[in-house]
Fold:
Amino acid sequence: MSEAQTSKMAVSDETVIKIHKMHKWYGSFHVLKDINLDVKRGERIVVCGPSGSGKSTMIRCINRLEEHQQGDIIVDGVELTNDLKNIDAIRREVGMVFQHFNLFPHLTILENLSLAPIWVKREPRKQAEETAMRYLERVKIPEQALKYPGQLSGGQQQRVAIARSLCMNPRIMLFDEPTSALDPEMIKEVLDVMIELAEEGRTMICVTHEMGFAKTVANRVIFMDGGEIIEQNEPNEFFDNPQHERTQLFLSQILAH
Amino acid sequence: MESVEQKRNIISTLWNDKEKRAVIIQIFSIAGLFALVWFMIGNAISNLDALGKGFSFDFLFQPASYDINQHLISYTSRDTHLRATIIGIMNTAMIAVAGIILATVVGFTLGVLRLSKNFLINRIVYIYIEYIRNVPVLLHILLVHGVVVHSLPNPKAAMTFNDSFFLTKRGFFMPSPDFESAMTVVWIALAIGIAFTFWFRRYAKRVQDETGKIFPVFLISFGAVVIFPVLVYFLAGSPITWEIPVLKGFNFKGGMVVRPEFLALWLALSLYTAAFIAEIVRAGIIAVSHGQTEAAYALGLRPGRTTQLIVIPQALRVIVPPLTSQYLNLTKNSSLAIAIGYMDIVATIGGISLNQTGREMECMIIVLALYLIFSLSISSVMNWYNKRIKLVER
Amino acid sequence: MSDSREYAVGTHPDLPPPLSTSGAIGWIRGNLLSSPTNIILTVLSIYFLYKVVPPSLNWLFFDATFNGDSRQDCREASNGAGACWAFVKHRFHLFVYGFYPVEQRWRVDISFILLPLALWPVLFDKVPYRKHLLKFSIAFPFIAGWLLIGGFGLTPVSTDYFGGFMLTLVIGVTGIVFSLPIGVALALGRQSNMPVLRVICVTFIEFIRGVPLITLLFVASTMLNYFLPPGTQFNLLLRVLIMVTLFSAAYIAEVVRGGLQAIPKGQYEAADSMGLKYWQSMQKIILPQALKISIPGIVNTFIGLYKDTTLVIIIGLLDPLGIGRASLADTKWTGLTTEIYVFVAIFFFLSCFSMARYSLYLENKLHTGHKR
Structure:
């Protein structure tokens, strides 16, 4: 990837996600240690790090799929607590794409997409389905609308999953290793969709090992290891001039091939 | 010498040709089977001849001359063996239906509790399920029957609730309803309630499709089917008089009675099957991967809706096939009724009728045929259903 | 960013979790009191335990009578509040041996001792000299049969005297040993590409699975003789054994069929492409894999068979339940049904639960083998 540095849209000063001194334990295992992170509206962040470093856990805390035990997470001005109202409000604003797609196998693609708008936003079915078709066209598979997830390839399924999140029109998108369960030839089709999204200026946090993607679209790359944020920088600096030795080691390993 | 050699060659070529060998094997199996059947039928004919019995179902139309204490349709000992058989079928059906209902309710409850995060309830249910599953069902039936017959009080010292329900070793006595003419209004109200629910569910779906508005469908249905008829019942001046059982001599008279054999068989069979159902339900819910609920949560669906729209439809696909085989098991296990004297198919035609008429062959054929018809029809319905709900895969 | 950090980057130590979420308090909060429903469940559970556990323990142990010569002794000892285990103790030999002649009981004892020895190499794969021991396992049913029935130098004992746990084990072990090969054969027949064979096997399997075992036992006890040459006297126990074996074979066939269907098509094709004949490919490639997958299901079928041995009392054989009920005819001990049922229930629970645990252990072993 060249320095194409696509039209990176202006990042506003408004903070949409604020994580402050956040800790998390699984039993007695300390998975996230003193996480501090501010995300501005329109920012596109790539999180990388060795497996087991806590990067997935961190973004799963942002929409409360995991509970943190210490510190604060504030999303769009709403603090994440046990209050169900807050959790609902945040989950409406935050979309998530999973490593294993997690499409609902008993529903058609169209039903997968219109489910949440109908039951959460209470939209009329026709409207929800129109939105769904629009997003399916954007991810370039409108002809699959009436099939079931099991009939699609991995890349197609992941694109459907992205479209499914978009149907709720979230302000923030989280991607949890969206391409690591895909065959190489399907990675590109998914990344292309993600790059398009980035160009629209949607706030994105993406856990991925696709360094090319990071260079192209990210405003900031975060490196995590051992449950901590070790280093964060804008992509050029991050790749050309890593500060911490662990970052250097990780980059040398991942760029070696 | 040569001819022998040739013969061997022919046999070996036949034997080494895959298709021809298959034909040979099949011809021999058919021949063997026919020989066996022929042999058995021949024996049966000569044995029956020796006993002077013959083979005929005429006995079905002769008086059974034994009593059956539990019968849904009228029956006296002067009725025929055929009618006794029908009573037996009805009793089997009754225990099966009642058992399936209770087993399903208890089984689903236990299965969900087994997944509870609450440590205590989880362990209690686990121990209960393991105890039930690892003890023979016959033992459960005898144990429950023993408790009912030996540990419950005599009618004179009956355990009572509200002086109208009586639990005794002679059975569970309860008031029987006597409907007055005004009751018709209540039945109509119930019918309206049910019809309304059917209509309302479709209406609610249409409104949701058109405007997105979500009605509390369950609450309204509940109101229409339960609360509305109950209100009408009271408005109509409670048009049911209850005939309360009264102690006369050594036993209660009047009202309805659930006999101890039925009670014991029903409880034992249902609780036994419930333990298996609980494990099936648990496995079914676990089979819906964690990712499914997470994806639903991430889309903003509440846990209740997630269960309704995502977990239950998927879990049912896993649960239903083994669940029906448990229903079949329960029905087949109800044949153990004979151990405590509940008059089901096996106890009537396969038991007393068989002993009285000495027509072992005919009686057993009827019994086997009845169970077979039942099992095969259920499993063909199941196969059809399984094909229908199978997830579409590439 | 600009936050004050307590530790230098990358050196944050593992800290213990906050007290409220760990330790005993955290455990109780998380497991028992995490929500209103949870609190209600906890309270109900404690109430249930309080209502059930102490009375049961009192009846079973603390108020129970273990010594005595009649029910009267038990009544006097505990005011009738507890179980009268003296009865079970008094009749223990009957529960174990049935009516097997007293002076021949050593033969039953030897069979009991040989049984675990025969099972050991079958159940576990890390057994020294397993191959040789397995030969003994195969021979065991015949050795035990000879020991129990007699002949060939031993005094013959009529099977009418068989009873108690010994009868349970005889029926259970025989059923298990013979139903497995028959079940596998039926499963192969059902999957065969010869229509006649397939129809025969399917009919047989569906017939057996469609009717309750008790009706088959009735067939064995009332009707089977008609189909044999006139004058044949056919031992009742043998008839029961045949029926139980066929019954469980049909169920095993279905379990094994599941295993056969789970084998990827590639395995069949690979075996074919190596030029293996049908029996060779079955024996070397397909069956070992299919059986391995089916083992938990097979063990579950065996547990069912073992529990079903109790049904024989209905046609008059004296398994432990039958022995117990027969013993009640003794006026000294009338009315102790609960003790008998509980005692027999404990026996079945222990044996079936250990089989179920074994099946679980196998399942876990299989799963780790298949994990990526």
Summary: Chain B has a mean pLDDT of 88. The CA atoms of residues 114 and 122 of chain B lie 5 Å apart.
